[in-house]
Amino acid sequence: DGGITQSPKYLFRKEGQNVTLSCEQNLNHDAMYWYRQDPGQGLRLIYYSQIVNDFQKGDIAEGYSVSREKKESFPLTVTSAQKNPTAFYLCASTRGGFEAFFGQGTRLTVV
Amino acid sequence: AQSVSQHNHHVILSEAASLELGCNYSYGGTVNLFWYVQYPGQHLQLLLKYFSGDPLVKGIKGFEAEFIKSKFSFNLRKPSVQWSDTAEYFCAASNFGNEKLTFGTGTRLTIIP
């Protein structure tokens, strides 16, 4: 089945530690995205990538980093510089600006 | 800056009532517009989209939306809602040729049986 896989579904980390969220797609989509979903704030764009080895900051990129070494993979690192990292993170992909497909999400809790 | 606004944060309706959820966008150039829905515990999924042509677009499950360029709006409508329409609805936009996809803050819809 084609789709987007995010792992893990739940993640706990201690304050001050970096953590990497995985996102893999087998849809052959060129563009991939990371969003953060908080209650009442909708989906806020962290980073997006339109092509391999290229990515752009979204609206809330501070404290996050990404890489796009392969078309299928777009991992997100939440660094210790992110002031409020506890959130629900969604990965998505599109092809040619058409329908976006979403992963199941990763709920990150920093304690 | 490009943005999408949804002013209805939580809407509560009885079954069979008509629905209209507002969406306004702030984009220059040619805009692509979308409505996504997130049912409880499920992935976001596409309801409908507008790229060009007929400004009235029809989507799945009886939803439709109208693109009004002069008002920068893309409101979602359904003539008669069902309890199963209880979900969170998100409007989204991108510019033609640029794949940056921006979402609104969402509207939580609760249907009372």
Question: What does this entry look like structurally?
Answer:
The complex is a heterodimer of chains A (111) and B (113). Chain A contains no helices and 11 strands. Chain A is mainly β and 111 residues long. In chain A, strands 2, 4, 5, 6, 9, 10 and 11 form a 7-stranded mixed beta sheet that branches. In chain A, strands 1-3-8-7 form a 4-stranded antiparallel beta sheet, with no helix packed on it. The model of chain A has no long low-confidence stretch (mean pLDDT 93). By secondary structure, chain B is mainly β. Chain B contains no helices and 12 strands. Chain B has strands at residues 3-5, 10-14, 19-21, 24-26, 31-38, 44-50, 56-58, 64-68, 73-78, 87-95, 102-103, 107-112. In chain B, the strands form 3 sheets. In chain B, strands 2, 5, 6, 10, 11 and 12 form a 6-stranded mixed beta sheet that branches. In chain B, strand 10 (87-95) and strand 11 (102-103) form a beta hairpin. The termini of chain B are far apart. The A-B interface holds A 30-31, 33, 35, 40-45, 48, 50, 56, 58-59, 90, 92, 94, 97-100, 102-104 and B 6, 9, 32, 34, 36, 43-46, 49, 90, 92, 94, 96-106.
In short:
The complex is a heterodimer of chains A (111) and B (113). With 111 residues, chain A is mainly beta.
Secondary structure topology:
The complex is a heterodimer of chains A (111) and B (113).
Chain A: E1 4-7, E2 10-13, E3 19-25, E4 31-38, E5 42-51, E6 54-57, E7 64-66, E8 76-78, E9 87-94, E10 101-102, E11 106-110
Chain B: E1 3-5, E2 10-14, E3 19-21, E4 24-26, E5 31-38, E6 44-50, E7 56-58, E8 64-68, E9 73-78, E10 87-95, E11 102-103, E12 107-112
Parallel strand pairs in B: 2-12
Antiparallel strand pairs in B: 1-4, 3-9, 5-6, 5-10, 7-8, 8-9, 10-11, 10-12
